[in-house]
Every structure is written in C-alpha cells, then in structure tokens.
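Sequence in, structure out.
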Amino acid sequence: MLRDGLDVGRPPRQGSLLVWNKSPGAVAAEHRVTAGRWRAEFASAVGRISGRFARREPLAHAADLVAGLVAPLERKDCWTIAEHAGHASPHGLQHLLGRAAWDVDGARDDVRGYVLDHLADPGAVLVIDETGDLKKGTATVGVQRQYTGTAGRIENAQVTVYLTYAAPSGHALIDRALYRSPGARTPPAANMLASRPRSGSRPSRNWPRR
C-alpha cells in the first residue's frame, strides 16, 4: 500500500501495471522482473498522477485500488480490493470513488502519457469497445433498459465505452466514457465500485481487524 513513502504493497503475480505486452521478448523478460522492480515502476506511475490529488489519502487509496485491479482476485470490488490491500474497511476506496476531490480527467491524461512513453509506435491504432454491466436496480449512474452485447438483448444495464491504444509491442486503456441517454439515471455520486454491498453480505472470514 502507498502510505508515507512509496511502498505500494503486493504486486500482481504476473504482468505490468498499466501496459500489457505479449511479445515473446516481453514474456521472457516478465519472469525476470523482481517484486522490487515492479514496485519501483508502480511508484513511478503513481508519482505521475500525484499532482492530481489535493490530499495524500486519496492518492494512497488510488494506488491501492489500481494494485487491486491488476491483482489476481477472483472478484474485484471495493470490499475485496480493500481486503487485498490490508484495509480495515472499504470506506476509503468508496470515498475515493464517490466523494473525494481529485482531477479524474487530468489523471487520465497522465496515464495516457505513461502509455505513450512505453508503447508509442507509428503503426499503433485506437480500438473502441463498449461493455455492458447488467444491473438489478436503478441506483447506479447511467443504468436503464438498453441493448447490451453482454446479454445480447435489451436489459437493465449500464454501458461504458473504452478507448484502447494498441501498438505492435502491447496495448493499454487510455480513455473511457459512460453512456448516458436522456432517460438514464444520474445520481450525484454513484458508481459501480463505490456501491454498498447487498443487504446481508459480509467480508470474507480473513478480513483484517484493527
């Protein structure tokens, strides 16, 4: 976890932070990347977005969130990622996603610069893809009855469009946009990961206590 220094906790078992590279040379090199080297690169990437946060705590939570998203977790939400990071509760991650003040689009621009520094190539292309998440309720921002390829029919769903930079040496996400038609729900602070768990749900028995 990122705290006073740039100790960013547990690296994923394989892969890199923001750039996935499937070339044979990169796959061979992957097995030579030590945990210390991975942490150093992760800290460098976090440092690039640090100026987008007014306070240290949201930056620390952002680092923990990204580390959890690239970790080999079976399910990824604020509860499981907080447990993976060693937090006593998911409240910090939920605050980051729903209420904390930080420059989201500026951080996106910083990530895009990081990707271009590593993957820039004249033969690169941009790939646009939309992903639908089926929803049971109406509390999530952007949810409505609409067609989604996830189900192959009209369902109650949230649809997000993603932009990927794809180069011969690898690819990475560089932008996103939530699709919201005039009839979609847009509560003041709602998103997928910050939503509270369903009634009766509990963290795993290994949840850290303080």
